[in-house]
Amino acid sequence: MDRLPTLQSELKNRLADGLDIALKYLAEAIADGSPKFDIFIQLKSRYSAYLSAIMVGGSSVTELEKVYNNLTAAFLLLVNSLTVNDLKPFEPSAAPAKPKRGELLYHIPHAMQENHETACRVRVAYLLETLFEDWKFQKEDQQRSIRVAEIMAVEMLNVAENQPFAIRGMTETIQFLEVGDFTEWLFYVRPLRLGEFPLLLKVSVIEVINGREVKKDVVIEEHVIVSGEAVEEKEVLKKTGVEVSFQTVENQPILPGFQIPKPSGIYRPDFPDFETATAKPSSSPNYSPQPSAVLLPNIQSSKSRKGLRAAALFLAFLMVSTVATFASTTKYERGFWVARIQNSEKAYTEFIEKFENDPKFAAAPQREKAYFKRAEISENPLVVRDYLENVDAKLALPANRDSVLEKLKILEIKEVASIAAAPTAEKIEKYTRNFPEMSRLPEVVDIVEKHPAIKSTALPILENAAVRQIQKLSVEPEKVKMYREVLPASEPIKRELDKQPELQKRVLQESGSTEIEKENGLVTEQVLDEKTARKEAGKPVQIDENQKVEDKPVQYSWTKKDEKETNAQSLGIQSAKKNLTDNDCPIIIENKKINGIQFVRTDSRLIIMRGNYSYTITFFNDKSRIFAQIISTGSFGLNLDDQVVFINSSGQEKTFKFVNIGLYEKMKNRNNLQIDREGLKWMANSTIVGVNFINFVDKMKYKYTILPKRGAELRNMVNCFDNILEERQ
Predict the structure, then answer these.
(1) Phi, psi of 238, rounded to the nearest 5 degrees
(2) Kindly report the CA angle at 117 between 116 and 119, in degrees rounded to 5?
(3) Beta strands 195-209; 151-158: pairing state
(4) What stretch of H or E contains 206?
(5) CB under 8 Å to 436, separation ≥6 — which residues?
(6) How confident is the model at residue 140 (pLDDT cuts 50, 70, 90)?
(7) Is 254's pLDDT higher than 50?
């Protein structure tokens, strides 16, 4: 049976899952000696360059899409041109899966000379026996087991903002890793100033999940001391040209059948007594003397000699590198090693307290590591927070800082869940101490509102905690805005803001909605009449949101009265009104015609804010399509084909997809949803009360509630956009 048509069909199906998957499948089928094999290798090389362009950045989305389309077209041409002679002989047994673990070996000298380049090498292999092939061992070599994949990337980066190193990469950042071989990267590092500086080694595993490239990073920080003197690097072992032969004991050859006698009782080494240093070896009858050396006859086999030499080199590397490293350690390194062996919160605390008053300890990397390891172990939010409060951000490893922030988020979620299970004023007080920024304040206030018995005691606790944060010089305007929105009736917060007009101005600049600013009393230039104030104040709507991530619809307890009052928050724009102008809709920031084609764009509106992350939405159009641009700050990525589900107050849902490769810059993710005209009209005639983000890369669904006033603003925005946009769209 001819398997070529089946293979070609399967390759095209695999291409739909991703070019990387299709290339892997083709690699298993194409013969090495085939005329098409060179074309295949060239295509893999082009794909590697494409991945490198994604990692390095600098290319626009349009350019990347064009390159990818060219690659897929070239792949299809190659597949269609395959013949039976291009394929490997059919083998029914499946090849064994490649191991997921591998070995990393790298050499980064800890001492370098200013303005002199030093070579730094990094090597990755699946197997240990191939890792050390032709490697020149030096005392600062480091080896560890890591996760590996077919595609690996290695970068060497500056950590300090003043860029103390000039780094030249002599090899491709992204390389393929084959079983039975190693892959190596070479960097030349030139220190630009004197002192001690961190140097970051980032090893990235590039894998495919659901047809998408996903990176997993291993980050290693090494510290380099830069001096003005020349630094000499010595190899641990070198070939000298001298052959060493073992001698016999007392000139008596050891016979092949010789066996070392074993002790019949307790064995006591032939060493002087530790306490007296003068006592002779025991004369116990149970003592059997041991030979002072075990000698072997000369080995003639070249293969055996090669195997022994490799083993000896490896053992020498382990022994010499360990001894040399320990001999050159500082008191901070030795103290940290002791704490690391115990690996407990108490051990790290004792290490920190021992050296905390030492002026030089503040800049020692072991201080940052100790605070991080303690935070990693502890479940006490105050201990975890110590890392952020006591480690200078410039000295903190970014990966460690992100890990601590993520752990605090998890601990805060757990504490809020504990409050929800059994709310008390004492728990609220503890929450404000453990998490003074109160990132989940909206949820806590919602819990308090549902329990009138503690409301009179708990709300003042939360208000006072918010005031303490506002009084800090480092407070973020976005946080203040959140406190005002969640606690709009708080007199203590209002009085504190009255004392800080500059902060009020910054909060206004941060806000994305003038109406919200008016409602919160942050606009003092305009005075709203009492009727408008009553109309726009609205009534809070209680929404019961299922917090678990699962495919069940969120239940919203909206009533007809709530719907009526929410609609009353409108800016006076009704969906049935068709004679709107730009003056009626200040949300429209662009409405123009170019060559007879209308282009309309709205201002952005905040739809979700949860502490340190938020989402905004903007509507616009091109020649024939309508889009809603979503921007998330401090949250997960917005990927191509991910879905956003809008839910109205009747429980109806409308789903839209992201149609671009997501962009990430300055802590913000952005992507565009394509909206059909029917979907736009549905949103214009609905009050949106919830939104779900379905992330197919992480295989997660994120569910959010939209506050009533933001739901009303969103409806007004869509009304304006829909009514001003001509029907041709």
Answers:
(1) -135, 155
(2) 145
(3) antiparallel
(4) strand 195-209
(5) 465, 468, 469
(6) confident
(7) no
Is the pLDDT reported for residue 675 higher than 90? yes
Question: What is the rounded distance in angstroms from the CA atom of residue 70 to the CA atom of residue 47?
Answer: 10
Q: How far apart are CA 600 and CA 166, in angstroms?
A: 47
CA dihedral 224, 225, 227, 233 (to 10 degrees): -60
Q: 211-236: per-residue pLDDT in tens? A: 556 778 888 988 888 888 877 655 55
Distance in angstroms (rounded) separating the CA atoms of residues 384 and 372: 8
* Residue in the block written with tokens 């100033």: 193
Whole-number Å distance between alpha carbons of 495 and 346: 43
User: How far is 253 from 255, CA to CA, in rounded Å?
Assistant: 6
How far apart CA 483 and CA 413 sit, in angstroms, is 18
Average pLDDT, the chain: 75
Q: How many residues in the chain?
A: 729
Question: E-assigned strands of 576-711?
Answer: 588-594, 597-602, 605-610, 613-621, 626-633, 643-648, 653-657, 663-665, 668-675, 688-695, 700-705
Residue 612: per-residue pLDDT: 63
Max avg pLDDT among 309-318, 472-481, 703-712: 703-712
Q: How many CB atoms lie within 10 A of CB 634?
A: 14
pLDDT for 525: 31
Which is it for the CA torsion 649, 650, 651, 657, positive or negative?
negative
The pair phi, psi for residue 673, each rounded to 5°, is: -90, 135
Helix (H, G, I), strand (E, B) or coil at 119: strand
**Direct distance between the N- and C-terminal alpha carbons of the chain, in angstroms, rounded to an integer:** 53
Alpha helices (H) in 81-213, listed in sequence order? 128-131
The span from the CA of 429 to the CA of 411, in Å, is 16
Q: What is the identity of the amino acid at 246?
A: F
Those residues whose C-beta lies under 8 Å from the C-beta of residue 267, and which sit 6 or more positions away, are 287, 288, 290
Model pTM score: 0.35
Phi, psi angles (nearest 5°) of residue 101: -100, 150
Report d(CA 105, CA 318) in Å as an integer. 12
CB 487, CB 459: distance < 8 Å: yes
Residues contacting 146, CB < 8 A, separation 6+: 101, 102, 103, 104, 124, 203, 205, 218
Angle at Cα 717 formed by Cα 716 and Cα 720, nearest 5°?
A: 85
Contact by Cβ (8 Å): 158, 187:
no
Average pLDDT of span 597-605? 89
- Mean pLDDT, residues 142-171 taken together: 89
* Cβ-proximal residues to 93 (8 Å cutoff; 6+ apart), any chain: none
Q: How many Å apart are CA 696 and CA 658, to the nearest integer?
A: 11
